[in-house]
Amino acid sequence: MQNFEFYNRTRIVFGRETQNNVGALTKKHAKKVLLHYGGGHIKKSGLYQQVTDSLEKENVAFIELPGVMPNPRLSLVREGIALCRENGVDFILAVGGGSVIDSAKAIAAGVPYDGDIWDMYVSGVPPTEALGVGVVLTIPAAGSEASVGSVISDDSDNNNKRAFNHEMLQPQFAILNPELTFSLPPYQTACGASDIIAHIAERYFTRVKNVELTDRLCEAALKTVIRNTQKVLQDPNDYDARAEIMWAGTVAHNNLLNTGRIGDWASHMIEHELSSINDVAHGAGLAILMPAWMHYVCKQDPALFAQYAVRVWNVEADFGDLELTALEGIRRQKDFFRSIGLPVTLGEIGITPAHYERIAQNTRRSDKDTVGNFVRLRSEDIMQILKLAE
Amino acid sequence: MQNFEFYNRTRIVFGRETQNNVGALTKKHAKKVLLHYGGGHIKKSGLYQQVTDSLEKENVAFIELPGVMPNPRLSLVREGIALCRENGVDFILAVGGGSVIDSAKAIAAGVPYDGDIWDMYVSGVPPTEALGVGVVLTIPAAGSEASVGSVISDDSDNNNKRAFNHEMLQPQFAILNPELTFSLPPYQTACGASDIIAHIAERYFTRVKNVELTDRLCEAALKTVIRNTQKVLQDPNDYDARAEIMWAGTVAHNNLLNTGRIGDWASHMIEHELSSINDVAHGAGLAILMPAWMHYVCKQDPALFAQYAVRVWNVEADFGDLELTALEGIRRQKDFFRSIGLPVTLGEIGITPAHYERIAQNTRRSDKDTVGNFVRLRSEDIMQILKLAE
Asked: Is the torsion defined by CA of B94, B97, B99, B105 positive or negative?
């Protein structure tokens, strides 16, 4: 186990009707709020009304900035920063999924910063302070509701996507009501599950030895997501199954599961390039790439991949051939993704061999860089992984 | 799953040599510190010197209050409160195990409180503020380093033991270096493991249905503690095994594992009475009581106890007789405790049937009270459990 620090200040308020506490929770942190959200979905569902009623009941003043899109854009972040400064806003309330939360975090860090917020994403300039952020979560997937991270795309520069991680980006609170996820369509539910599974798997596949507790915590979260995704696709209004996925989605990404270990993250980085080509949902891209990545690298540590196959996918171990055991686990994971309606090959999302070189080049960002920690992938490795994903 | 709130602000700083960061960490929170500890052990080990060197290097002023005993006493807490007020102390640094930390928390809550600190423990009066607490942990067991709880005994009243839980009691930081636990003797190591196992099991056995993620997280932590306790007893200087136990001990009690569920806690409450009779170590008392409690109540939910037996103790399920499966799990748990050198019968610690009625009466505290949540135990139930522990 490696030395580590673990800190997570986000207060989770979980359960039925908890969105009605948003006014009281916000009041503890805010004088004036920017209510940040996407489009009309929260108005149609009634959530917008519930949130604004709760803020008004507690006399919390707010202004609004809707319009967050998937792959949240730098231009809207800048607009939000200006709006907050003009109006003396001191707290951002994000109502939505990962994109809305990531956008809210960027605004929160940008308001008190003298320079341009994009500096943080490009050069890692740390914030010295940040406004507080609160969350009412509608999509369990990204885990941004209790994470240190934010991913923003520069819409003036070919949607150049950059991630920034800092403890100050952890929200003050996150309201998680599984009922709010009943209306998620099956495909979006499946994409969310795939994203959650990937967040755990990226942490699981590590070169650090002797990390038994976190191995087992990861396996616990993975099994829960796998089983309950199947339940939710059978019955979208299964509160308990929705609750398991929602809570697992937060635990998957709040950094507990990588304490003492070093995650990989190559699949996430390659997936960002897939999304930029054809706007495939992040979870769908990951469903295609993760098994291919696993297939390509598993021979580097067959014991770890066999453990994963046995403990997560209930494969019977072949102690004489751990790689075979590992491959059977990967096959079952791919079958699972297929069974929940996700694509598992690049062809299904219109990515052809003609795209591979561009994907491989862009993923590395510079000629010297490699991608990932479990195996440091070079261009030719990425090309091989893309071939395995055909 | 039940609605819940989860909040834990404690910054964990984990790994080799991390005690040398204590000065820098303390400086962020403190102007003047009360250094609180037990006896000579930390002086002999060199830890006292490392901690005071680190504080001095960062120019953190401190005064000292040693003398915390197991089952920390109210009189010392009151002495600490007076000392802090006289000297303008604004932060308590606890160097030791659960007793030292619990005592530090009581002082921290007591200093800014107008009334008597014992009010909080007896009547649950919540604090409106509390000094900050930092921890350098030397014994993985109680989990107090990141918990909301503190248990204090009134040494002027027959060591009347009371627990108080409040979010404000969560330490600001906890330094966890597994190397500091190499010198723990085997018996104390085993008692710590039993305490950790009990913290998880108390949360595991619940009437709340559909709590799959937390079931599995509990099982993950239990398996880790069981396996690594055996390793550590073989080789006390096994860093990685010590690290697994230390981190599991914190996760066991930081409230993550009971999100959405209601724990039982009867075994803990009965154990407090055992300790008051013959000063048996808490973990040893729990090793005797937990299996007896499980035996007595498992017929109320054989499926849950069978799940525990199968997933934690690797029992092969007898699907035609889940209670038999459950009992085999309990037997293995008892064998495990015996194998690590703990007592598993009341006779071994000198408790005889003559004590039972007093234990049963005192555990309930008043004629109307019952004990525990999984089954609400009355006196006659406690008597039965004690008989099963003979």
From this structure: positive
For A72-95, the pLDDT digits (tens) are: 999 999 999 999 999 999 999 999
The span from the CA of A65 to the CA of A159, in Å, is: 21
Return phi, psi of residue A164, to 5°.
-135, 135
Q: Which residues in chain A are contacts of B3 at CB distance < 8 A?
A: 14-16, 18
Measured between alpha carbons, how far is B40 from B303 in angstroms, rounded to an integer? 49
Instruction: Give the pLDDT band of residue B18 (cuts 50, 70, 90).
Output: very high
Residues of B in contact with A168 (CB under 8 A): none
The domain that holds B240 is classified in CATH as: 1.20.1090.10
What pLDDT score does A161 carry?
Answer: 86
Q: Does B11 touch chain A (CB under 8 A)?
A: yes
What is the pLDDT at residue B367? Answer: 54
Q: What is the pTM of this model?
A: 0.97
Cα–Cα dist B117/B75, whole Å: 11
Give the best residue of B2, B213, B229 to mutate against chain A (max A CB count within 10 A): B213
**Residue A191 DSSP class:** H
Q: Are residues B68 and B165 in the same domain?
A: yes
Q: Do B311 and B236 sit in the same domain of this protein?
A: yes
Nearest by CB: A213 against B7, B210, B220: B220
**Burial environment of residue B7 by CB neighbours within 10 A (0 to 12, 13 to 18, 19 or more):** middle
Give the domain extent around B50: 11-180
Regarding an ipTM greater than 0.95, the answer is yes
Of residues B194, B186, B119, the one with CA closest to residue B154? B119
**Chain A, window 207-266: residues with a beta carbon less than 8 angstroms from a chain B beta carbon:** 209-210, 212-213, 216-217, 219-221, 223-224, 227-228, 240, 243-244, 247-248, 251, 256, 259-260
Instruction: Considering only the beta carbons, identify the residue of B15, B213, B244 that sits closest to A221.
Output: B213
Contacts of A177 in chain B (CB under 8 A): none
Q: Which chain A positions have a beta carbon within 8 Å of B10's beta carbon?
A: 7
In a domain, B228, yes or no: yes
A8 contacts in chain B (CB < 8 Å): 8
For the stretch B211-226, pLDDT in tens is 999 999 999 999 999 9
- Distance (Å, whole) CA B263 – CA B273: 20
Instruction: Give A251's contacts in chain B (Cβ within 8 Å).
Output: 213, 217, 256
Asked whether the beta carbons of B77 and B106 are under 8 A apart, the reply is yes
Tell me if A221 and B223 make a contact (CB, 8 A cut-off): no
Residues B36-47 pLDDT 10s = 999 889 999 999
Q: At what angle do helices A266-278 and A379-388 cross, to 10 degrees?
A: 70
Identify the sign of the CA torsion B70, B73, B79, B85.
positive
Q: Which of A180, A212, A229 is the last residue of a domain?
A: A180
Residues A262 and A207: their CA atoms lie apart, in Å, by 7
Q: How far is A113 from chain B (nearest CA, A)?
A: 22
Let me know whether A225 and A162 are in one domain: no
Tokens, residue B319: 């699907």
Can you read off the two tokens belonging to residue B339? 């194998």
- Mean pLDDT across A277-287: 91
